[in-house]
Amino acid sequence: MTERDRPQGHLGGVDRALPRGARPSGWRRETGGSPESSLDQAPPPDRHHDDLLAVDGLRIAHGDVALVDDVSFRIAPGERVGLIGASGSGKSLTASAIMGLLPDGLSAAGSVTLRGRELVGASERELSRLRGKDLGMVFQEPMTALNPAMRVGRQVAEALTVHGTARRRATARARELLDRVGLPERTARAYPHELSGGQRQRVLLTIALANDPALLICDEPTTALDVTVQAQVLDLVAEGVRDRGSALLFITHDLAVIASVCERVLVCRDGRIVEEGPVETVLSAPEHDYTRRLVEAAL
C-alpha cells in the first residue's frame, strides 16, 4: 500500500498530532540542495532507528503449518496502532509472540525487537523482566488473567513489587492506581468474582500500566462489555497511554474502536498483513478487497 500523509490522530475526543519521531512504514525524507551538498553525499539515515517495537518476518507455526506468516510492522514511541481482522486471522497470536506467551506446541521465528532487544528466542527469565515493566498487556477475559483467590489490591501491588518496588510503597501505590481508573477504595479488598466485568477490566488495565510500560498491548479488551462500559474502558486506555507516553497496540475486530483510539492501522488476514496506513485513510479509502469488505460489514 502506498503510504499517504498521516492525518492527526484522535485521543479522548481531542485531535493530536503524530508523536515526535513517529513515521509511517515506508516513509522517506526528500533532501534538497545541490548535488554537491553534504546531505546528498551522506548515507541515507536508518528510518527505523527510533522504533520502539520492530517486527520483521514473524512466523508462528504449529509443526509445518504456518498460522502467522511473514508479518512485519513497526511502532514508534508513543504511537497508537490498531491491528484488525476477523477471528482466526492471527491477531492475538502476534500479540502473544511479542509477549513471549505462545501456547505450547507453537513456535515463533523471525525477529521481534523492543528497543533493539531481541524477544524471539529470549529466555523466560529475560522475558519475565520485561513483562509488566516494559511490556504491559490487557487480555480479553479478565477472569482468566486475574487470580481468583487473591484480593485485587494485592494483585496490583504484586505487579509493582516483582519489579523492585518496596511492599509498603506498592500497597499504597496500588490504591492510588485503582482510584485513577475510577474504582473505589474498597475495591482493593475485593476478590475478582465480586466485581463486575467492567470493573475487572479496569483492574487488568491498572496492573498493565502500573510500571509505566513503554508499550501497552490490548487484546480485544472490550468485547464482552456493554456499549457504555466499553466507552469508559476505551477512555481509560487512551488516557493511560497518553499520560505515560506509552505506545499502544490495540487488537480488535471493531473498526469503530480503532477509529476512536488509534492513529495507524494494520489489517490482518490469514496470518498476513494485507494493508496498513493512517486510520482515516484506510477506513475511508481502503485499497485491499478484504479491507473493503471489513469496512462494508461494519456499516
Automatic annotation (TrEMBL):
Q: Which domain of life is it from?
A: Bacteria
Q: Where are the transmembrane segments?
A: none
A GO cellular component annotation here is: plasma membrane
Q: How does it sit in the membrane?
A: Peripheral membrane protein
- Could you say which residues form the signal peptide? none
Q: Which InterPro entries match?
A: AAA+_ATPase, ABC_Ni/Peptide_Import, ABC_transporter-like_ATP-bd, P-loop_NTPase
Q: Where's it found, cell-wise? A: Cell membrane
User: Which intervals hold domain ABC transporter?
Assistant: 53-295
Region annotation Disordered: where it falls in the sequence: 1-49
Keywords annotated in UniProt? ATP-binding, Cell membrane, Membrane, Nucleotide-binding, Transport
Pfam families according to UniProt: ABC_tran
The record ties this protein, via SUPFAM superfamilies, to:
P-loop containing nucleoside triphosphate hydrolases (SSF52540)
GO terms (molecular function) for this protein are: ATP binding; ATP hydrolysis activity
Q: What is its main location?
A: membrane
Q: Which family does it belong to?
A: Belongs to the ABC transporter superfamily.
The name of this protein is ABC-type glutathione transport system ATPase component
The protein's organism comes out as: Prauserella sediminis
